[in-house]
Amino acid sequence: MEGPVFPRAKHAVKDKTIVGTLSDEIMAGRYRQPMSFPSVARIVRRFGVAYQTAVKVLDELKQRGLVRIREPAAPVPSVPAKIKIRLTENSRLRLDFDGQITLGPVVYGGRAYVGVIDASTHPEFISGRGSINAMTGGTILLFR
Question: What does pTM read for this prediction?
């Protein structure tokens, strides 16, 4: 007579089933473009599993050499809050990071801007996905 199946054993079987399914799909060429492979969130939704289970599945696929896992987006750069950015007219500042940094005011075309500054608030001179929390005061950095 077999004993009861504990939740941990059920999860281990489900993990292996998901790993097998995704392995088969990789080998069949379903994910030709790297960006088409499912993220942790997509694995959670597709298979109805917990976040930790999806992470374990990706770790197993990585150990088998079937996927490479990119590091998360770069951390927000650490910049002294006293820095002030001065842009000459017709120049642009690209905020190529996730999140927000705190600086002194951003000066564009002779006008100082304070508060949250990003591509949605000032598309005329800001691009990228990051944002600046511009405070008053600071040391000037000139960009041309």
Answer: 0.43
CA-CA distance, 43 to 54, in Å (whole number)? 6
> Of 130, 93, 120, which is closest to residue 109 (Cα–Cα)?
93
Q: Of 117, 11, 87, which is closest to residue 56 (Cα–Cα)?
A: 11
The residue type at 116: V
**pLDDT tens digits along 40-71:** 888 888 988 888 888 899 888 888 888 877 65
Non-local (6+) Cβ contacts of 115 within 8 A are 121, 133, 134
Amino acid at 3: G
Kindly tell me the burial class for residue 107, based on how many C-beta atoms sit within 10 Å of its own C-beta (0-12, 13-18, 19 or more). buried
According to DSSP, the β-strands at 111-113 and 106-108 are antiparallel
| Cα diameter, the chain | 83
